[in-house]
Specification:
The complex is a heterodimer of chains A (67) and B (373).
Chain A lengths: L13 E8 L6 E5 L9 E4 L6 E11 L5
Chain B lengths: L6 H65 L8 H8 L14 H23 L5 H34 L2 H30 L7 H10 L4 E5 L2 E8 L2 E8 L9 H11 L4 E11 L9 E5 L8 H12 L4 E8 L1 H5 L4 H21 L5 E6 L9
Parallel strand pairs in B: 3-7, 4-6, 4-7
Antiparallel strand pairs in B: 1-2, 2-3, 5-6
Classes of the chains: A mainly beta (67), B alpha/beta (373).
Chain lengths: 67, 373
């Protein structure tokens, strides 16, 4: 008889990134998420124009290519 | 060549036929007499396996909550006993045989419970950091939910076993995959909560926070903030839960206050929220509609519908599709990137449904963990 309890999925590992965006020139930098990061938090200086960047997104991506 | 060539064959065929009949009659009798028992046996095994998984999940979430309280919250002493008391705490919903005024009663009970949870957690952790307190609240809520799921499933499992009730067990067996899936999602949420990562449910907050950055914010309801922004001649009253704490706030109270206490006469209320997708729908897809886009127990939805109806303000909804797992675990790329499209949709709705000089209320709904403003 087939089990109705699903076996534990083999989940691909999720990597979490923070996106820092420069509000002046719009340059986006992707880096690994660090505990304490949150959206709208001040980031590092923009490498293009030197202005203060801001964390605009925090998201997870699968380490395996989807499909 | 035998004299009667078909005799042996005839005997053999008769015996075969007889055995064949005995087998099938026997099978029929066995199925009739023991079929249900056999299915009960399989169902019990199946549910028992699921129950063991639920027990592991329940214990893991409890341990994670205690570890967080000790390591991050710096709880003095061992909080295990207080946590166990917390897990068994019950909220008794009001009587619904006379539904008149039930929403206010539910609101009162839920508010009392939320205040109690906040007070308990604040007493448990040594530091007064609101992010740590809110994360502790969420971790304890996850542990409470898993504890309750395990208890209810165990109840029906034992009841079915005691009474040998075929129908109780079969119904529970059919529900087990969904129960395990939802419990698994809850357990996965713990990892995101612990480190303060935004969850999929926070997409509404992410979208409206773009209108609030750099603006003056004011507390408008418990755990809820509002900022005034401007878009193409319209004045936007932007409301969201106070981030980056793991709050959902009180958007219903906030919208009511904007309209009834501040005297704002909005031309539209636009709500942005995550919506559960149906199987086959794509994560991050955007849907538009009318009505109050907010989940939960129904109190906030009622308040928003009531104030909108009383003041004849149209309610518009922008929804981002995601699964239950995606809603309560770390925000996926497809969902986060949908925030740009949500902002474009919001701007289009504002342009189409209102005119210059109008006031518009924009509410980002959801858990705002990791999303400030």
């Amino acid at each position: 008889m087939m089990s109705s309890v699903p076996a534990t999925d083999k989940k691909s590992k999720l990597l979490v990134y923070s996106i820092e965006e420069c509000p002046v020139c719009g340059q986006k930098t992707k880096r690994a998420f660090v505990v304490g990061d949150y959206i709208t938090k001040d980031g590092s200086k923009c490498t293009k124009c030197g202005n203060q960047t801001r964390v605009s997104l925090v998201y997870a991506e699968s380490s395996k290519p989807s499909g | 060549m035998p004299l009667f060539p078909n005799v042996a064959l005839q005997v053999s065929t008769d015996t075969g036929y007889l055995l064949y009949m005995i087998f099938f009659v026997g099978l029929f009798v066995f199925q009739f007499a023991f079929g249900t028992r056999l299915q009960v046996y399989f169902a019990l095994n199946d549910i028992g396996r699921g129950l063991s998984k639920l027990k592991v999940m329940k214990e893991k979430s409890r341990k994670e909550a205690i570890d967080y309280l000790v390591n991050v919250g710096k709880a003095p002493g061992d909080p295990a006993q207080r946590v166990d008391q917390f897990l068994d705490y019950v909220t008794i919903m009001p009587v619904n045989t006379d539904p008149q005024g039930i929403i206010n009663k539910i609101d009162h009970i839920v508010t009392t419970n939320n205040d109690r949870v906040r007070a308990e957690v604040t007493a448990l952790v040594a530091q007064n950091n609101p992010v740590t307190v809110s994360i502790s609240e969420n971790l304890l809520e996850v542990a409470t939910a898993l504890n309750m799921i395990h208890k209810v499933v165990r109840h029906y499992y034992i009841l079915g076993k005691k009474t040998n009730s075929y129908f109780t067990l079969i119904q529970l067996q059919m529900l087990m995959p969904m129960i395990i899936q939802e419990s698994d999602a809850l357990l996965n949420a713990v990892d995101s909560f612990k480190v303060g990562q935004p969850v999929g449910d926070g997409i509404g907050c992410v979208s409206v926070s773009k209108f609030m950055v750099g603006k003056e914010k004011r507390a408008i309801a418990k755990d809820t903030v509002m900022a005034i922004a401007e878009y193409k001649g319209r004045k936007l009253y932007v409301v969201k839960a106070d981030g980056p704490m793991a709050y959902v706030g009180q958007p219903g109270v906030a919208i009511k206050k904007v309209i009834e206490e501040m005297g704002v006469k909005p031309s539209a209320i636009i709500m942005i929220d995550a919506a559960l997708k149906l199987e086959g729908e794509k994560t991050g897809e955007i849907a538009e509609g009318v009505g109050a886009a907010i989940g939960g127990i129904g109190v906030e939805k009622f308040q928003i519908e009531e104030v909108a109806t009383r003041n004849k303000v149209p309610l518009y909804a922008i929804l981002v599709k995601e699964s239950i797992l995606e809603a309560i675990t770390v925000m996926r790329k497809e969902i986060a990137e949908a925030s740009e499209k949500v902002v474009q949709t919001l701007q289009r709705v504002i342009e189409e449904k209102t005119k210059e000089g109008d006031d518009v209320i924009v509410a980002g709904i959801g858990n705002t963990l990791g999303v400030a403003q």
